[in-house]
């Protein structure tokens, strides 16, 4: 049983939770740009969020399952189509599906953002420095190639056709930040303006970071900021580059940098930045570190409760040819599964 | 009471101890020594540590109460003069053969002129200066090396060089950077090595560690061409004196 890559593009890679512990050697953690989507995919299939999945960074791909395979589709909503015995039907997002042998799955971007295809059992490839995720900036791994066969691990077992309402993070919005090492290098007036500005996410963006356009076009500048000493950089840092434009660093960012940083996005709000489509409005709200830690604890609880929030997909009986053979059995299994998870 | 060292939070899950407002060998050594001490202490809240040029970074468990950790960190930082500490860890000397000729050192003449040296004097200085890895960062395995004599305090280029190759030896602000991957840069290229600084498939993926002594002995272009085909790049590693 494998998943054959029929079509791919440069933004289609294997991702997991990334590699932690290599900062001292200059390697940022990488991993899924939207770790919440990783957790949601894992919850839908009843498996660990540490398994490797396919990430599509605003890029299309097509796959064929050589045998029956459960999958989950999470993250930014792409158009998903299943082609089976010459017939095509759309697949719903934030849902687990049972692909029959020989089925072809097409995924194509909607508004943008990062989409995730999680196979039951994850994709098993050799570990490199403790993880399977591609880190293209570091030269680890590469984009998936046409003809490549992805081998899923053992399916932990469980139902398909379960739905999970995603944690809210799509379409931009308010993002919580704490002061960074260099916030005080900016004049108070600029920090205040930063706080009041509605930014638009620029079309330029990737796994390393996304650029923000200030509403009125006025940039930011720390006096003497271009000669500050290089310091540690972490995902979430909002660095002000030479032209005054803020740039939010994501999971595959560099590990040190000399541009001043006006604020740092809370890790739990970084998915909201990563998933904001081009043009989406983003605002930043400073919180204290205590509030930030409380937000992180809330987020950890929300992730832990995902499995308990699954529900069977309501299907339109008129559109179903396989009511008896499929849905009833799926329903029985899912009821038991929900009990296990509660 | 001096303003330094300074302890400050970085993000919601990090702390940074900075030892100086600008690069100096003692401040870098202090950062390395503090990092080694914190690694040894194995505080439960600490997930990871790293050094920058003159600072030590601690990444913490974001869900743990940091009050106890901050108190312990303040005590440890204040307990001694870290700039007087010896360089921690195993001391290695890494010799990386370097070609300073023609196309392999396109900005050497310019850098030598700013440093007030002839080209030959500049090569002599780069090949014999006592240097060590100050920190590794930006890209995997990429070292910031220092510190060159004051004459080498040359600014970064305003107009970036579109591309230097992996293994390029570059200079600015009394430091050398040896590039781990091909990149655009504002640093001036003064040499070319066959060093592979990061190889994810190797048993030892990273060639250099912060604190390593390094030397860049000169070689000719023919020798460099040979070494480019040698996975080891002609590099020797020995215990430092």
From TrEMBL, chain A:
Residues 24-302 form the Carboxyltransferase domain. Gene3D superfamilies: Cyclophilin-like. This is Urea amidolyase. It comes from Paracoccus salipaludis. It holds the Pfam family CT_A_B. InterPro entries: CT_A_B, Cyclophilin-like_dom_sf, PxpC. GO terms for molecular function: ATP binding; hydrolase activity; lyase activity. It comes from the Bacteria. Transmembrane segments: none annotated. Keywords: ATP-binding, Hydrolase, Lyase, Nucleotide-binding.
From TrEMBL, chain B:
SMART domains: AHS1. The keyword Hydrolase applies. Residues 5-208 form the Carboxyltransferase domain. The keyword Ligase does not apply. InterPro entries: CT_C_D, Cyclophilin-like_dom_sf, PxpB. Pfam families: CT_C_D. GO terms for molecular function: ATP binding; hydrolase activity. Keywords: ATP-binding, Hydrolase, Nucleotide-binding. SUPFAM superfamilies: Cyclophilin-like (SSF50891), PH0987 N-terminal domain-like (SSF160467). This is Allophanate hydrolase.
């Amino acid at each position: 049983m494998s998943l054959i890559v029929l079509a791919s593009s440069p933004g289609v890679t294997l991702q997991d939770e990334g590699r932690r512990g290599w900062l001292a050697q200059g390697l940022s953690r990488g991993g899924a740009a939207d770790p919440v989507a990783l957790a949601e995919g894992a919850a839908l299939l009843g498996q660990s969020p540490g398994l490797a999945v396919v990430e599509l960074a605003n890029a299309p791909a097509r796959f064929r399952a050589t045998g029956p395979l459960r999958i989950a589709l999470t993250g930014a909503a792409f158009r998903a189509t299943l082609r089976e015995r010459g017939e095509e039907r759309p697949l719903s997002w934030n849902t687990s599906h049972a692909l029959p042998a020989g089925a072809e799955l097409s995924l194509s971007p909607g508004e943008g953002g990062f989409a995730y295809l999680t196979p039951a059992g994850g994709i098993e490839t050799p570990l490199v420095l403790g993880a399977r995720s591609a880190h293209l900036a570091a030269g680890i791994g590469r984009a998936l190639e046409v003809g490549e066969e992805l081998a899923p691990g053992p399916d932990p077992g469980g139902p398909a056709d379960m739905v999970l309402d995603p944690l809210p993070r799509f379409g931009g919005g308010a993002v919580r930040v704490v002061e960074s090492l260099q916030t005080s290098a900016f004049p108070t007036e600029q920090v205040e303006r930063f706080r009041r500005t509605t930014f638009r996410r620029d079309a330029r963006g990737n796994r390393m970071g996304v650029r923000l356009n200030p509403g009125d076009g006025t940039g930011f500048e720390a006096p003497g900021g271009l000669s500050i000493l290089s310091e540690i950089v972490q995902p979430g840092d909002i660095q002000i580059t030479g032209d005054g434009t803020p740039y939010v660093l994501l999971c595959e960012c560099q590990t040190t940098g000399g541009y001043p940083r006006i604020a740092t996005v809370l890790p739990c709000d970084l998915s909201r930045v990563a998933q904001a489509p081009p043009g989406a409005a983003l605002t930043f709200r400073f919180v204290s570190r205590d509030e930030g830690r409380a937000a992180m604890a809330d987020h950890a609880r929300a992730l832990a409760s995902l499995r308990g929030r699954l529900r069977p997909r309501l299907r339109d009986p008129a559109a179903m040819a396989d009511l008896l053979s499929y849905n009833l059995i799926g329903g029985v299994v899912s009821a038991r599964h929900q009990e296990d998870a509660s | 009471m001096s303003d330094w060292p300074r302890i400050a939070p970085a993000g919601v899950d990090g702390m940074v101890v900075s030892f100086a407002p600008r690069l100096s060998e003692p401040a870098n050594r202090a950062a390395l020594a503090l990092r080694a001490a914190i690694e040894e202490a194995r505080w439960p809240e600490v997930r990871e540590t790293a050094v920058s040029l003159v600072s030590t970074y601690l990444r913490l468990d974001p869900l743990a109460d940091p009050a106890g950790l901050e108190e312990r960190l303040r005590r440890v930082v204040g307990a001694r003069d870290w700039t007087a500490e010896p360089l921690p860890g195993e001391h290695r000397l890494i010799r990386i053969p370097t070609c300073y000729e023609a196309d392999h050192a396109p900005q050497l003449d310019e850098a030598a002129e700013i440093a007030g040296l002839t080209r030959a004097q500049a090569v002599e200085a780069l090949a014999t200066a006592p240097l060590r890895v100050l920190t590794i960062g930006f890209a995997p395995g990429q070292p910031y090396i220092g510190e060159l004599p004051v004459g080498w305090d040359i600014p970064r280029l305003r107009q970036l060089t579109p591309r230097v190759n992996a293994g390029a030896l570059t200079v600015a602000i009394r430091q050398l950077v040896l590039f781990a991957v091909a990149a655009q840069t504002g640093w001036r290229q003064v040499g070319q090595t066959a060093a592979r600084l990061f190889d994810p498939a190797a048993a030892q993926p990273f060639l250099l560690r912060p604190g390593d002594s390094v030397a860049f002995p000169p070689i000719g272009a023919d020798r460099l061409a040979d070494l480019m085909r040698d996975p080891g790049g002609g590099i020797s590693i020995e215990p430092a004196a």
